[in-house]
Amino acid sequence: MTWDKDIRFPDKKVDSSWKEGTVQKREATSPASLPAAEPHRAQETSTGSPKQPVHKTSKPFMNLLSSLGYQVLMHLGEIPNPSTRQPEINLEAAQEIINLLQDLKDKVEGNTSPEEKEVLLSLVAELQMKFAERV
Questions:
Q1: 85-124 pLDDT, tens digit each
Q2: Domain ranges of the chain
Q3: Nearest 5°: CA angle at 65, between 64 and 68?
Q4: What b/e readout covers 63-99, taking b as 16+ CB neighbours within 10 angstroms?
Q5: DSSP-assigned beta bridge partners for residue 43
Q6: According to the model, what pLDDT value does residue 22 have?
Q7: pLDDT above 70 as % of the chain
Q8: Exposed / middle / buried, residue 62 (Cβ in 10 Å: 0-12, 13-18, 19+)
Q9: What is the 3-state secondary structure (H, E, C) of 21-57?
Q10: Angle, helices 91-107/114-134, rounded to nearest 10 degrees
Q11: Which of 20, 65, 104, 15 is nearest to 73 (CA)?
């Protein structure tokens, strides 16, 4: 389909003031305007002691761990299946999810907060123990 008409808007008025605000904000936060950061060095506080970097805990990541842990417990019969309200044992599925968590632990090494790392390590260890008890 081709357009035969050339559509023009001769009375069109454009408010370009937003462009100026955006440019000013961009210039204010450009890397050149920010102080240079030293990677891999702890910042010092006013007392001279090193300040540890702050890690934010990822809520979606923690929710993922919780969900996977819940599924393993359900497959081990520790928690009843919500749809049947009966405990069901599926050791293959439990083992698959535990292996997935182990692989996930290996993949995210160094990219997690201390809290996330602790939760992941303890979750894998506890689930492996419960699996070994069930087998």
A1: 999 999 999 999 999 999 999 999 999 999 999 999 999 9
A2: 59-134
A3: 85
A4: eebeebbebbbbbbbbeeeeeeeeeeeeeeebbebbe
A5: 51
A6: 58
A7: 58
A8: middle
A9: HHHHHHHHCCCCCCCCCCCCCCEECCCCCEECCCCCC
A10: 150
A11: 65
Place of tokens 């990219």: 111
Question: Strand, coil or helix: what is 80?
Answer: coil
* Segment holding 94, helix H or strand E: helix 91-107
Tokens 């632990």, located at residue? 105
Please say whether the beta carbons of 88 and 81 come within 8 A. yes
Residue 21, both tokens: 């605000």
Joined together, the tokens standing for residue 41 give 């060095």
Give, as one character, the DSSP assignment of residue 108: T
Give me the residues paired with residue 102 across strands: none
